[in-house]
Amino acid sequence: MSFMTRCYFLPGRLQNLRYTPIAGFLYLLLMFPTDVLSQTIQIQRVSPAHWFTGFQRQSLQLLLYGPGIKGTKVRTTYPGVTVDRVQYTDNPNYIFADLTISPAAKPGMVTFQLSRIFPLTEKRANGSTVVNGGKEVTITLPYELKARTAKPKPVTSADFIYLIMPDRFADGDPSLDRVTGMADNETDRSNPFRRHGGDLRGVTRHLDYLADLGVTTLWLTPVLENDQPLTDENGTQRSSYHGYGITDHDHVDKRLGGDDAYKRLVDAAHGKGLKIIHDVVYNHMGLYHWLMKDLPSKDWLHAWPSYQNTSYRDQPLVDPYGAEIDRKISREGWFVPFMPDLNQQQPQVVNYLIQQALYAIETFGVDGFRVDSYFYNDPDFLNRLNEALFREFPGFFICGENWVNSVTNQAYFVRNRIQTSWKSNLPSAIDFQLYFATNDALNQAFGWNEGVQRWYQVLAQDLLYEDAFRNVVFLDNHDQNRFFSVVGEDLRKYKMGIAFLLTTRGIPQLYYGTEILMKNFKNPSDAEVRQDFPGGFPGDPADKFTEAGRSTVENEAFRYVRTLARYRRETPALQTGKLMQFVPQDGIYVYFRYDSAKTILVAINSNREEKGLATDRFAERMQGKTSGRDVLSGSIVSDLSHLKLPPLSATILELN
């Protein structure tokens, strides 16, 4: 053939797509007949939507999309901005303009001149058509350069993170429940798989509730546009309410309130001393992302002869004996059929994702990133992107979701002390290993390797991390069974888990509703653990954001969380203080958090009967202290030599 053909796997309606110059021309005639016939330059998309002066990174690759714009030249006379080159792809609808934004560039509206020569044709008497010269068409394209204003606040072990799924938290603006033009334009709270109408204004309205609880930082599941139609998942039609099927990286979903609502939330949170963690997805995008409707080039995605799902296995990526095909499937297989897997070795993809990360911080003012499905990404790309963020925002908080199967593998994907050829620069792990240990500690009978021994054993491996105090510790999240259900709806075990969460090392994270005993297992689906926060939606029979709306036991749980969270907020020893733990004995796990100002003893009794605890074994840490104050009750313990530990309890004492 004299023309190139591109063929690659796409699921569903796009599965057998072929691109040829002839097919592309026919596509343009069908989709853009006015533009082709009138021979004008039309730009339909520019990404990033705007940019900023003052970045150390002076390069910007501007993506421009429009019908048949291949061959268009880009120029500007704006001071401090130069066009270094224009790149074209095999898709005639894209150009990539490589710019330099020098330190001399000032905020303002850049005017680009876009020019292209359109051939002039002449019909001869015999009916044939010949090219007779050309006509140059020039248009202007305004593009805004803004001043940098973002000053992310560091997220550290002094913080307490609260995870929110906006669609399920609170509906602050019912007019957004139906937004004209969106593919999924219905809300149905009776259907667990559909959108329910929660939005960013709903979160903003409850910031006082969260601050009162002792929370310092909010993590929202992705808020960027998810303009996806319903997907068929195991025979059930589901909405992309969770936010992980992104269809536009430049803008916040209109059904959540759009860009302005997100900015207002961030500003309001900062005004109350709260920080915002932005959930980002690099590994994949939604099947209906605007780029997917007309890919810049076939190599933007990982292509397979037929559909290849990831194995979801982390071991091949760490295994020194692993096969290359297993590594390839883990990393380059698609997460699910409706989330196309991005090729992070393709230079334009790399630029696109790095720029979008910088864009999000500056545009919305967020304080940190939680990176979805971290180990599925290309490892060198991850380090490169993280370094780009650290260069512009020193100390910026990034935690990665690495749902792996061992402490070693978890440490491998963050800054660590392991001797390996590839080293991660990720600062923080979401600590799945301590999560698994917590479930075992509270549900297994005590044994050599069981029960509360699991806490001890996992923490004893912290030597693998560069700084385990950066790890995010949690009891449940949007992908896990609700904690109160995991512990058999036993309030005593619930309190033991909360006590551990808020007194161990690391950054504690609470899932929305855990403080009011929201429950359920992922049965038959994860929608069961993503139910609406009662009182967040019009017509709710009870408002559990208020004390009056909660039951007696729910208020007891709420007060327990609030008491410990507030104490932690005021106690540096529980934030940055050292940790010393002792080998559990007789079902009792004892550890200390301490600094130069305070020493706090935590004794967790996993037995179903009261236990006495002689404290002489802990003399090296107690250092002669003879009395203390019970943090939860406020009562004074005058004799520390022998403690009485109630059954299934956590005793927390501030030693005098």
Describe this structure in words.
This protein is of the alpha/beta class and 656 residues long. Among the domains are: 1-31, no CATH class; 44-147, Immunoglobulins (Immunoglobulin-like), CATH 2.60.40.10; 578-655, Immunoglobulin-like (Sandwich). It has 18 helices and 30 strands. β24 and β25 (599-605) form a beta hairpin. α9 (347-364) runs parallel beside α10, α12 (432-443) packs antiparallel against α13 and α15 runs parallel beside α16. The longest helix is centred in the middle third of the chain and has 18 residues, at 347-364. It is elongated, with a radius of gyration of 28 Å. Residues 1-37 have low confidence and may be disordered. This is Glycosidase. InterPro entries: Cyc-maltodext_N, Cyclo-malto-dextrinase_C, GH, GH13_cat_dom, Glyco_hydro_b, Ig-like_fold, Ig_E-set.
Task: Supply the number of helical segments.
Answer: 18
Question: If you average the pLDDT, what whole number results?
Answer: 93
CATH level 3 topology of the domain at 44-147:
Immunoglobulin-like
Distance between the termini: 85 Å
The strands making up the biggest β-sheet line up spatially as 20-19-18-17-12-11-22-21
How much is the radius of gyration in Å?
28 Å
The quaternary organization reads as single chain
Instruction: Label the overall shape.
Output: elongated
Instruction: Kindly state the percentage of residues in helix.
Output: 10-25%
Which CATH architecture of the domain at 44-147 is right?
Sandwich
Write down how many β-strands occur, each being a DSSP E stretch of 2 or more residues.
Answer: 30
**What is the CATH class name of the domain at 44-147?**
Mainly Beta
- Residue fraction in strands: 15-25%
Structural class: alpha/beta
Which stretches of 5+ consecutive residues score pLDDT under 50? 1-37
Pfam family, one: Alpha-amylase
Domain Glycosyl hydrolase family 13 catalytic: 163-568
GO molecular function: hydrolase activity, acting on glycosyl bonds
InterPro entries: Cyc-maltodext_N (IPR015171), Cyclo-malto-dextrinase_C (IPR019492), GH (IPR017853), GH13_cat_dom (IPR006047), Glyco_hydro_b (IPR013780), Ig-like_fold (IPR013783), Ig_E-set (IPR014756)
